[in-house]
Amino acid sequence: MIGVVDYGLGNIPAFLRAFNQLNIPVRRVTQPEDFKHVSRMLLPGVGAFDWAMLKLNASGLRDELELQVKDLGKPVLGVCVGLQIFFESSSEGSQQGLGWLKGSVEAIKVSKGRVRLPHMGWNDVNGRGEGVLLQNIASPSFYFLHSYRVVLQDIQLAKGVAHYGTEITAVVESFNIMGTQFHPEKSYKAGLALLKNFSEVTPSA
Amino acid sequence: MLRSRLIPTLLVDQGAVVKTVQFGSPTYVGDPINAVRVFNDKEVDELVVADIGATSRRSAPNFDLIERLANECYMPLCYVGGVRDEFDVERLVSLGIEKVGLSSSFVQDPCVLSKAAQRVGSQSVAAVLDVKRNSSTQAFEVRTHRGQEPSLYSLRELSTAVEQFGGGELLVNSIDREGTGTGYDLELIDHILELVQIPVTLIGGAGSLEHVFDLFHGRTPIGAGVGSLFTFKGKFRAVLLSYPNMVERLELFERLK
User: Fold this and answer.
1) What's the rounded Cα separation, in Å, for the pair A74 and A176?
2) β-pairing, A2-5 with A40-43?
3) In this complex, do A145 and B99 lie within 8 Å of one another by their Cβ atoms?
4) How much is the pLDDT for A203?
5) CB B118 within 8 A of CB B211
6) pTM
7) How confident is the model at residue B130 (pLDDT cuts 50, 70, 90)?
8) What sign has the CA pseudo-torsion B150, B155, B157, B163?
9) Residue A114 CB: number of other CB atoms within 10 A?
10) In sequence order, which residues have a C-beta less than 8 Å from that of residue A146 and are 6 or more positions away?
11) Separation of alpha carbons B146 and A69, rounded Å
C-alpha cells in the first residue's frame, strides 16, 4: 500500500489516479496513524519551499513521517518541492527543511547564455549510474515546472539528469529516500512507469 | 533539451466548450470532460482551459467543474477565468491545477501575482494578456474582460509587470487572430520575447501545423496555444478534436533542430 502524504500541497488526486491506473493499492495519509497501513510513501509538492515546510509542520504528520523514513526505513518518493524539502534549506526561503539529504536547493542559474525561468515543459532525462526509478523506461521524457534545482553534496545520488542551460538533477536515490524534480503524475507512460518502479523498489540496506 | 509546448486551448462558458472568432460569435463545441478525455488519449503537452463566461461576467471560477476537469486530466493543466485573488489561486492549485492564469485581476492589481506566488510558487502563477492591434495604427493594445475594456496600460508596461511581480508565465491572446486560422502574429511574439525572461505562450491564429512550426522556429522554447485547429475540421467546421500524433510531433521537432 502506497501512502500519498496529504499535508496540504501537491496534486494528490493525480497521484491517486496514477496508482489506481497501475492497480497499485494507494491511500491518502492524513493522520499519523495512517502511516502504519502503508509500506511506502509519496510526498507530493507544488509551490514554494517555505510554504511547503510550513504546511508540513502544521499538518501534524512530520514527526511520524520522519520516524517512518529514518527509523523504519520505508521508501519515500518526494516530487518537485516534495524532493526539495528533503534538503536542509533552500535559497528560495528561510524555513528549515527536513535535512535528510545533504546539499542545497538553489535558483537555476546558467553560466553561458540565457534560459527562461521557470523550467517549464517536457525535457529528456538521462539515467546515471545504477538507479531503479528510471529502469525500463523507453522514452524518459518528463514534465518539469520549477525555478529551483537541487544540488547534491554527493553527486553519486543523482540517478537521472536533465539539461536546461545547466545540469538539472532530475532523479535522486539515496537508499530509501528518493525524489524526482519533474512531475511523474503528469508525465503519461513514462511517469506511470516510474511510479511503478517506485512501488517495486527494495532499497539496499 | 526543453521542447516548445503545443497546447490545446479550450474555452468554456457555462459548463460547455465553446469556440469564438476574434472574441465574438461563440459556437457550441461540446462537453469539457469529454474533451479532456480525448486530449488525455492524445497525450497532449499541456491543456489550457479558459472560462470566458467567468471573465466577461466578472464571476468567480466554477470550482466544481474545475475539480471534475482536474480529476480527469492526465496532462498539466492551466486554468484561466474569473480568478480573483491568491486564495482562488491556492484553492485551484489544491484541486490539481498546475498553473493558474490571472487576467483582469492582474491588470487591476499586479500584487496579486506575488501574493499568489508566495503560496503556490511563481511556476504556478501565470498572467494572461489579451492583445488587439489598433485598427488604424496597428499598435498593440491590451484589453480586459474578454476584450470589452481597454486597458490604460501598455503591453510593455503590463508584460514587464508580470515578471516584476513574480509571475511565472505570460500567456498572450491575440484577439485579432483568434479563430481565423491565418497564422500567429509573429511580430507580437517577438515583441513580448524581448520584454520578459519568463516562459511565454501565444494563443490565437494557428490554422495549420506549419503555423506552429513558424512560431517555434528560431525562438526559445515557447508555448503555442491552439484552438480552432484542434477543435474543428473541414470547411464546414465540424467538431473534431485532434492533435498531431507522436510521429508528426517528432517530425516537427526534428525540423526545428
Assistant:
1) 6
2) parallel
3) yes
4) 62
5) no
6) 0.96
7) very high
8) positive
9) 9
10) A80, A81, A108, A118, A119, A181, B121, B123
11) 50
CA max distance for chain B = 47
CB atoms within 10 A of CB B192: 23
Give the total residue count for chain B.
Answer: 257
CB contact under 8 A, B94 and A163: no
Query: What's the CA gap between B163 and A91, in Å, rounded?
Result: 19
B8 CA to chain A: closest CA distance, Å? 14
Please tell me the predicted confidence (pLDDT) of residue A48: 87
- The arithmetic mean of pLDDT across residues A147-171, rounded, is 96
Q: What is the pLDDT of residues B170-224, one digit of tens each?
A: 999 999 999 999 999 999 999 999 999 999 999 999 999 999 999 999 999 999 9
Q: Name the residue with cell 522514452.
A: A139
Q: How many beta carbons lie within 10 A of that of residue B58, not counting itself?
A: 12
What is the rounded distance in angstroms from the CA atom of residue A5 to the CA atom of residue A75?
13
* Lowest mean pLDDT segment, chosen from A72-76, A111-115, B124-128, B135-139: A111-115
- Residue from A39, A44, A36 nearest A16 by CA: A44
- The backbone torsions φ and ψ at residue B193, rounded to the nearest 5 degrees and listed phi first, read -60, -25
Residue B201 touches chain A, beta carbons under 8 Å: no
Cell, residue B1: 533539451
The C-alpha cell that represents B154 in the structure block? 501598455
pLDDT in tens, A2-34: 999 999 888 999 999 999 999 999 999 999 999
Give strand pairing partners of B68. Answer: none
User: Chain B contacts of A124, Cβ < 8 Å?
Assistant: 1
**Pick among B79, B123, B247 to test the A interface (most A CBs inside 10 A):** B123
Place of cell 504556478: B124
Q: Is the pLDDT of residue A112 over 80?
A: no
Would you call B130 a catalytic residue per the annotation? yes
Structure ipTM over 0.90, yes or no: yes
**What are A85-102's pLDDT values in tens digits?**
999 999 988 999 999 999
Of A94, A107, A83, the closest CA to residue A54 belongs to A94
| pLDDT for the residue A205 | 46
Chain A residues with beta carbon closer than 8 angstroms to that of B249: none
CB B158 within 8 A of CB B142: yes
pLDDT in tens, B37-82: 999 999 999 999 999 988 778 789 999 999 999 999 999 999 999 9
Q: Is the peptide bond before B26 cis (omega within 30 degrees of 0)?
A: no
